[in-house]
Amino acid sequence: MNFPSRSFDVIIAGAGPAGSSAAIHLATNGLSVLLADQKKFPRPKLCGEFISPECWEHFERLGVNEKMVVSQGTPLRKTVFYARDGRSVAVPSEWFGAAGSALGLSRSEMDHNLLNRAKECGVTVLEEAQAYGLVMNDGVVKGVTLRTPRGQENYLAPITIDATGRARALARKLDPDDQKHHLRKKPLVAFKAHQVNAHVEEGTCEIYVYPGGYGGINGIEGGVTNLCFIVSAEYARRCNSDPDRLISTFVSRNSRAASVLKDARAATPWLAVALEHFGRQSLVPATGLLTAGDAAAFIDPFTGSGMLMALESGELVASTISSRLKRLDAYSFKELARDYRRDYARKFESRLRLSSWLRRAAFVPRLAEVVIFLTGNDRLRERIARATRKSKLTQTDLPVGPRFST
Q: What is the DSSP code string of 60-84?
């Protein structure tokens, strides 16, 4: 067997949409890239599996448009938000892009398409390679330590990207307080499984609010639907983390959810994960280390822009690195880090602020119902929906709130 070189221009830990997107862009710009993930692909992933229309532009630049079409996901023409009593407001997918429709596609299929494209572009891909540690020299990150089937191995690069999602597997190792925080009890728990016999409206992503959380369901490939819902950890404990009990006890207190899910059953094993935070994290945990995707910021799932933000984040970090890596040293890395923080804030800060406000509303059912009632106005609803994707918001787009630090 031929083993890869141990030295690269960039190492990326995490082969989700942010990591694979960054790897493809970097490789097509002539850089040598190692992309490592602890799982073997294709693999299931807890996710709403809603791909917004703007993602098609990214798929085109990444060279995976045809792969996504061939995967035969479900076109989604609109997203409908339901209050507990059944009142609803709809957000047409055509508001967000020329493609005209969003796509319901499993993360197993989408991520595998992106990973295969990275291989085609010359990226060295290591699956079943856990990001175990960082190679450090005088406080500067020089690479990563991976645990592979062959044992523990060091790989070197002047830039490492942590794209390991909410786990922040590499960034967390640099901050003892962050590690302690990671061990604390999490306030929320998310569950996901593919369903059969769910009575969801064709071509629609449906979002439900209920006491203690919110959830959504939409069609994907293979004639099944994906159900993903979030509840408070307290409610999960009351039901012994049994998804079926949680659905009957809490999710079904939304009348539309009760109707859609009355005959549904899980066609795949349930996945569950505890959620500890939303919003922004450190973008530059150390010299030589950047974060991207959910490791940089976790946007609220009900906005429907999670996949878009992951692809944008991967493209942004790749663009920042590609234009500066050839002349990189300790001083110029400070410039790179400064530019990355600045460009990231310009692109994402306002939408993170808005989604934070909307999340607070979603977890208070009566407040959520007021928001649904108020957004019955088409123009206001469109403004708010577009603001969850915009780089900049006007003062009238959202309430005043704290700005995110870097």
A: HHHT-HHHHHHTT-EEE-EEEEE-T
Locate all alpha helices (DSSP H) within 125-217, ordered by sequence. Answer: 176-183
Q: Are 271 and 256 in contact (CB under 8 A)?
A: no
Q: Which amino acid is at 165?
A: G
Distance CA 353, CA 405 (A): 12
At residue 131, what is the residue type?
A
Each residue of 208-223: pLDDT tens digit? Answer: 999 888 999 999 999 9
DSSP 184: S
Helix (H) / strand (E) element for 207: namely strand 204-210
Is 261 within 8 Å of 216 (Cβ atoms)? no
CB 290 within 8 A of CB 340: yes
How many angstroms separate the CA atoms of 337 and 259, rounded? 50
Mean pLDDT of 74-84: 93
Residue 359 C-alpha from the chain's centroid: 16
pLDDT band, residue 393 (cuts 50/70/90): very low
Please state whether 118 falls in left (phi above 0), alpha (psi between -120 and 50) or beta. alpha
Does residue 99 sit in helix, strand or coil?
A: coil
Q: Which of 33-37, 182-186, 210-214, 318-322 comes out lowest in average pLDDT?
A: 182-186
For residues 210 and 257, the answer to whether their CB atoms sit within 8 Å is: yes
Length of the chain: 406
Cα–Cα nearest to 164, from 7, 276, 20: 20
Q: What is the DSSP string of 298-347?
A: E--GGGS-HHHHHHHHHHHHHHHHHTTGGG--HHHHHHHHHHHHHHHHHH
Q: For 304-358, write each residue's pLDDT tens digit.
A: 688 999 999 999 999 999 988 777 776 689 999 999 999 999 999 888 887 777 6
Pairwise CA distance, residues 216 & 302, whole Å: 8
CB environment 138-153: b (16+ within 10 A), e (fewer)? eeebbbbbbbbeeeeb
DSSP letter assigned to residue 7: B
By DSSP bridging, strand 265-266 and strand 279-280 are: unpaired
Distances (CA, A) of 58 to 17, 347, 362: 11, 15, 29
Q: How far apart are CA 259 and CA 249, in angstroms?
A: 14
**Rounded to whole angstroms, how far apart are CA atoms 270 and 231?**
15
